[in-house]
Amino acid sequence: MKVALFVPCYVDQFYPQVAIATLELLEKLGVDVAYPESQTCCGQPMANSGFEHLTHGCNDNFVKNFSGYDYIVCPSGSCTLHVKDHLHATDEKAAASIRSKVYELVEFLTDILKVEELTSSFQYKVGLHQSCHGQRGLKISQMSELVSAPFSKTEKLLHMVKGLELIKLSRTDECCGFGGTFCVAEEAVSVKMGIDRVADHVAHGATYITGNDMSCLMHLEGILRRQQSPVKVIHIAEILNAAQ
C-alpha cells in the first residue's frame, strides 16, 4: 500500500504537530507513508470565495504531486471533500483517479485500515466537535436531522483510547461558525456561533475539544483564548497518537 500524506496549508503553517501526529499514527499502524514535498494549497479558499476558476494552478500541482499512490490521506474533512468534489485538472484522467483515492484520516482508519483497537492513552474529559464538511459531505457521522441509526466514525476511534472520557453535548452536530472565508465575510455571526459551540462543551465539563478539522478547532481556540478559558483544543490525530 503506497500512501501519500496530504497536509492542508493552515496545518503546515500553524499546527505542524497535527501533521506529525498523523504521520506517526499511520506508521504505528504499519502504513508506508510518503510526503510529496512540493504540495501546496488544494484551492479550497479560492473556491469558497467564488473564484474556483483561479484554482487551475493548484489543481495541476496537486495532480502532479499525488498521482501514482494507492491512497491519499488528509487530517482535514473540508480539504478532503474539496478534492473529492472539485479537483479537475489538465490531466483529467489523473484528477479523476485522485478524487477516488483521497480520504480524510478518520475515514481511512475506519473504512480502509478497519482499525479495531489502539494503544493510545489520553486521561482527560473530551468534547467532540463534528465539523460540517466531514459530517454532511463525507458522512463521517450521523446528521441529527435524519431519522436513522446514529453513528460516528470519530467517536468509534475515541472509544478505543484508554482513559478518555467522551462527554455528551446538548447539540451534537451544531456548526462552529468558522466556514472558511465565512468567518471573514460574516464575522459577527461566525463569532456568535463559535461562542455558543464553546459554551456547550464548557457546560458539560470538557477539558479538551477535539475534532477532525483543525480549522474549526482554530476558530474555537481563538474564542477560548479570548475568554481566558483553561479548555484546550486538540486534533484527533494527536489523541490517537498519544501515549500519556
UniProtKB/TrEMBL annotation:
InterPro entries associated with the record: Cys_rich_dom
Domain of life: Bacteria
Ranges for domain Cysteine-rich: 3-84, 126-220
A Pfam family annotated for this UniProt entry: CCG
Database matches in PANTHER family: LACTATE UTILIZATION PROTEIN A, UNCHARACTERIZED PROTEIN YKGE
Protein name: (Fe-S)-binding protein
The organism of origin for this protein: Ohtaekwangia kribbensis
Lineage, top ranks: Bacteria, Pseudomonadati, Bacteroidota, Cytophagia, Cytophagales
